[in-house]
Amino acid sequence: MDNTTLARATMGTSLGFHIVFAVLGVGMPLLMSVAEGLALWRHDKSWLELARRWSRAFGVLFAVGAVSGTVLSFELGLLWPRFMAFSGGIFGLPFSAEGFAFFLEAIFLGLYLYGWNRLSPLQHWLTSIPIALSGAASAVFVVMANAWMNTPAGFTLGPGGQLAQVDPVAAALNPSTATEDPHMVVSAYVVTGFVVAAVYAAGMLRGRNDVFHRRGLALGMTMAAIAIVLAGITGDSSARFIYGAQPAKFAAMEGIYQTESGAPIHLGGIPDDTQQRVLFAIEIPKALSFLATFDPNAVVRGLNTFPAADRPSPLLVHLSFDGMVGLGLFIGFMAALFWLLAIRRRSLPTHRRLLLGLVLAGPASVVAMEAGWFVTEFGRQPWIVYGIMRTSQAVTTAPALGLTFAIFIVIYLGLAITTARLLLMLAARNREAGKANVSPVTSSHE
Amino acid sequence: MSSAELIAGILWLALTAYAVLAGADFGGGVWDLFARGPRAADQRKAVAEAMGPVWEANHVWLIFMITGLFTAFPTAFGVLSLALFLPFTIALIGIVFRGASFAFRAHGRDAVGPLSPWGVIFGVASVITPFFLGTAVAAVASGSIHAPNAQFAGSFLDGWTTPLAIVMGLFALSMCAYLAATYLMVENEREPALLADFRSRAIAAALASGVLALLAFAISAIEAPALMQALLGRGLPLFVLALLNGPLALWAVWRSRPRIARIAVAGQVVLVLWAWAVGQWPYLVPPDLTIAATAAPAATLSAMLVVITIGGLLLVPSLWLLFRVFKTGRTEASG
Predict the structure, then answer these.
(1) Which DSSP category does B18 fall into?
(2) SS3 content of chain B, % helix, strand, coil (to 5)
(3) Which residues pair with A155 in a beta bridge?
């Protein structure tokens, strides 16, 4: 394999691994803060115990997120030195701001995790607020940089292609930021909400129906339900923005080969480059034109109007896009069903089939989020900076990329397995503590 | 002072903070790996307690430095990423294993004891990471990274596989161990037995780092005359201070004065780093890349200074709070 393929594989794996921990780093602090806030407000020890349980799990998740994020910040340069030499001065500003957000998150998390006995209850709860805020801010800043790669702005090039003028604020606030940033941030809450709910739904299926399971499920599903609605709205505006700003990505998302007015939506199907159409898809006539512009006869530009070397892969992008939307609709349906039943029964629904659906919705939300990143990243190819620099021009000439890739795959597998085992162990320990009916270990690491 | 020089100075401060704070965390891993004697378990516990609340914040100095470097000096970052691909990749793997294994152990202590594979990985990664970061520093400081016209022109082994680099990698490792041992002396002032354990470790690390420093200086006379000239030129005042401070630090350790020792040993790291920085000023990556020539456009630098000011106003009181809560007044009951 050539360096470009290996570097893309390494970067993609690193991003795909890190993003799971990153979104929990955005969402979990908010859940912990709400639970602990309720404990203070209602003088309720079980809310406090729930916050403590989450904080122990989050201690592990945040550490893995921190080190895998470090990998990404290094890999920007190690894998794409020419990209960074060109772009660093333009789009680096939000990364610098992200550095501070990460700082604050790490500092207050240190206070939160290890401060249960050193801070007053109110002080302790207050430390959760900067964690939740800086976690969200980190996501906002990092996605600004990714948005810039999709719609580069804030600079002019001289006649020789060299950088002439730079406006880093305009680069950070590039056109994609307004749609990509909100969609990613709400998606982080979507995933956190559904994953947390799935954990407790799984427990309930095994007959565990204590106060922690009921409250964990309710709080998770509250976050999930609010966020999935927002994810739908922001995702819709993001797709309509891409129609205008990145027509090749848009055409690949929908498998549109020929330019047409009144373009259909292809549900599913396999885009076939040789036949230039989507096989086995369900077509909804004019729906795509309508959704993109609210005009059923609007023109959608086809992939074959782009030079062959400038086209993303419609197979990857279309399947990822439909995967994201399909799974998003499924988890949205589960959230709606859950709350409809809850309102009708005036208590948490515990039907086995519903719980089973919620257990599936957890991983489904993660896959949907990953698929969304596939759309963004595969859809931008062959560019690393859309229309400005090709991925193949950016890549390193360093040796041993294949070995590096293999090593990181092994590392990520090891980290994933160990993290999962550790979280299961923490959960088992919580159950033991509950069974013995003694107050659980308050801070195992003081 | 231009804004590029100002930001270079700030990044060097971040490097200093990383060395003095995170360096000690790596050193803690070294002493975890080499925990010996009847109090081995207590030594490991002391390391874990000292690192627990602060290591993640200490680690962020590295992120700050990396993002700051690619924003303010993108060409230098591009060249360094190519030239030091191998040592950076190895250090990166070390960083991942160190952080993850510490967290796995800290948060799952009952099942994952100090002798578990993750405990060993924690120690080994704490040795590997500072060593390879030290070799990377040697490559820069010795002026081995050639980039005429801001394009990397050299091999992927340049500068970090030399005898000088190996000695400087070991020096970095020994300084981390030295820092950790003196900090742990302070943390265990009230535990005479542990204090004595870490005192003898500090003395060993002090002697090792002293010998390695002199050896590095001698080798640089042959291998890297530019570094020698830098230290004896503009860097001379700081270099002399480092030579005077070294024995003072050792004296403080010897006489079991932990608080003086902590300041003196951290001061030694500061002096060495700044003697190097001042010595090679105005170069960022000698002999080809100066601070001015590799700087990002002025608009980026000004915007960055605004971000650093606002971020700093949030960061400094937060850091103060963190260290105030966990690193002072350990008299209160810590359960």
Answers:
(1) I
(2) 80, 0, 20
(3) A166
Q: Rounded CA gap, B101 and B132, in Å? A: 19
Q: For A113-133, what is the mean pLDDT?
A: 94
Angle CA B23–B24–B30, to nearest 5: 95
- Say what the pTM is: 0.92
pLDDT at A438: 44
For the purposes of burial, counting CB atoms within 10 Å of the CB of B303, is it exposed (0-12), middle (13-18) or buried (19 or more)? buried
Cβ contacts of residue B29 below 8 Å, gap of 6+? B47, B98, B102, B122, B123, B125, B126, B127
ipTM associated with this complex: 0.89
Look at residue A350 in the predicted model and tell me its pLDDT. 87
CB atoms closer than 10 angstroms to residue A102: 29
Q: Are B87 and B160 in contact (CB under 8 A)?
A: yes
B285: CB partners within 8 A, 6+ apart: B76, B79, B80, B140, B145, B147, B294
**Average pLDDT over all residues of chain A:** 92
Tell me the DSSP string of A192-224.
Answer: HHHHHHHHHHHHHHTT--SHHHHHHHHHHHHHH
Answer for the pair B175, B269: CB distance below 8 angstroms, yes or no: yes
Residues B158-175: pLDDT tens digits? Answer: 999 999 999 999 999 999
Residue B111 DSSP one-character state? T
Residue B125's SS3 state is: helix
Residues of A in contact with B78 (CB under 8 A): 77, 81-82, 84-85, 88
Residues 6+ apart with CB under 8 A from A149: A87, A91, A380, A383, A384, A385, A386
* pLDDT attached to residue A316: 95
CB A358 within 8 A of CB A197: yes
Separation CA B251–CA A439 (nearest Å): 49
Tokens of B83: 């030239």
Give the CA distances from residue B192 to residues B164, B187, B330, in Å, rounded to whole numbers and listed in that order.
Answer: 39, 11, 15
Q: Where are the alpha helices (DSSP H) in A349-445?
A: 352-380, 391-394, 401-435
Q: Which residues of A touch B79 (CB under 8 A)?
A: 81, 85
Q: Low-confidence residues of chain B, pLDDT below 70?
A: 108-115, 329-335
* Beta strand pairing call for A265-267 and A155-157: unpaired
B306 is written with which tokens? Answer: 């605004």
Question: Which tens digit of pLDDT belongs to each residue from A12-69?
Answer: 999 999 999 999 999 999 999 999 999 999 999 999 999 999 998 999 999 999 999 9
Residues paired with residue A265 on neighbouring β-strands, in sequence order: A284
Contact across the interface for B300 and A89, Cβ inside 8 Å: yes
Secondary structure E strands in B220-290: 283-285, 289-290
In a mutagenesis test of the A interface, which of B3, B26, B54, B67 is the best target, namely the one with the most A β-carbons within 10 Å?
B67
Pick A259 or A159 by higher pLDDT.
Answer: A259
| Minimal CA separation from A315 to chain B, in Å | 33
Task: Provide the pLDDT for residue A439.
Answer: 45
